[in-house]
Amino acid sequence: MIEKGKCALCGGCVATCRLLDYGYLSVDFSEERPVIREGQQCPPDCGYCYYQCPRVEKPELRAGREEMYEVASTDEEIRKACQDGGAVTLLLAYALDDAIVEGCITVADKGEWKPEVQVAMNKAGLIKGAGSKYTPAATLTGIADAILRDNLWSAALVGTPCQMSSYEKMFVVGRDTHNAHNFSSHIKLRIGLFCMGCYSYEKLMKGHLEQEHGIDISEITKLQISGDVLHVYTGEKELLSTGIGDIEDYKRDGCKVCEDFTGVFSDISVGNVSSPAGKSSVIIRTDFGREVFEGALEHGYIEATPIAKSGADLIHRLMKEKKEAGIAEKERRKKRLMEQLK
Ligand code: SF4
Ligand code: SF4
Ligand code: SF4
Fold it and tell me: Which domain holds residue 234?
């Protein structure tokens, strides 16, 4: 089983498990890794979960585009409910309305900001999944929900860069022999979210916000990391702003070895770095991503202008810094292990 400090909690192994129907594998958030159901033995010839995991072996990056835009919402309801420009929600709304996909795998708030993977099939569902949660969700388990439970033929997947790389791995092993369900042909659109790290729910929400700062979690309406600051809001009122340096200890260990900031394995990447308030930064990465983006523009779902060179430079700098930090942390851990083995 994968080491706790490496797991991205993406849920890819759970969705790929050969014995998925029997609930053999699940992500245990307190253990911070997947666990096999107590008392069960895996078939000796299996290991599908192992081959699926992007932290065992990284997928290979295919050549693609990198076109950057600042995007604003033309839909007032979505703009109000969303973070920044609402680009993710609007691209998904267009994909649903134009029948490109039948459902969208996103993460909603289960109550008290606990993330819950959902399959949204209309605008209300999309709005429920809008906004960043910053605590982990095993989003790839939503692929199994969309296809096996909801009988969808086509779905969009929205997730963090680790989840995009896990889906890429699913796609690649799906063409090989280690994917029991061949889900990969059903995912039509991949939207990756810029990510600098996610935090333990217990430590950030319960420990830091509730206990240390006395914030009633159920009153929070928006969490947003902008630059180096986490902002916590209820409606228009800011309840707290805290430097991300202050919450570094609550960051998951699996995030500290992560090298991908923008989600290079997506059709379209979206984040808030480099764009003014009220707008999203969007990177188109594939021909299909371009097609969906142009469709959303033509049908009036979004407005877009190319990102200024300074903005593109900032995104590239952060991509480089995150990659270097992930590699350095892996090296540190390797060195530590060697010393322990001496
Ligand atoms: S070894 Fe096979 S049956 Fe066991 S958890 Fe992995 S995929 Fe599932
Ligand atoms: S990184 Fe994802 S695929 Fe790998 S063990 Fe963790 S949850 Fe499973
Ligand atoms: S930092 Fe990496 S591992 Fe952590 S949530 Fe973001 S993309 Fe996933």
Answer: 199-251
Q: Is the CB of 17 under 6 A from ligand 3?
A: no
Residue 134: exposure state from Cβ atoms within 10 A (0-12, 13-18, ≥19)? buried
- Identify whether residues 178 and 280 lie together within a single domain: yes
SS (H, E, C) 32-74: CEEEECCCCCCCCCCCHHHHHCCCCCCCCCCCCCCEEEEEEEC
**Closest ligand to Cα 138:** 2
Q: How many Å lie between the centroid of ligand 1 and the Cα of residue 237?
A: 47
**What's the gap in Å between 40 CA and the centre of ligand 1?**
10
| Full pLDDT tens readout for the chain, 342 residues | 556 789 999 999 999 998 988 889 999 998 889 999 988 889 988 888 998 999 999 998 888 899 999 999 888 887 777 767 789 999 999 999 999 999 999 999 999 999 999 999 999 999 998 888 899 999 999 999 999 899 999 999 999 999 999 999 988 877 666 666 777 778 999 999 999 999 999 999 999 999 999 999 999 998 988 878 999 999 889 999 999 999 999 999 999 999 999 999 999 999 988 888 889 999 999 999 999 999 999 999 999 999 999 999 999 999 999 999 999 999 999 999 898 888
Ligand closest to 260 (CA) is 3
Same domain, 184 and 294: yes
71 and 109 inside one domain:
yes
In this structure, the answer to whether residues 72 and 149 fall within a common structural domain is yes
Q: Could you give phi then psi for residue 78, rounded to 5 degrees?
A: -70, -40
Q: Are residues 247 and 146 in the same domain?
A: no
d(CA 20, ligand 1 centre) in Å: 8
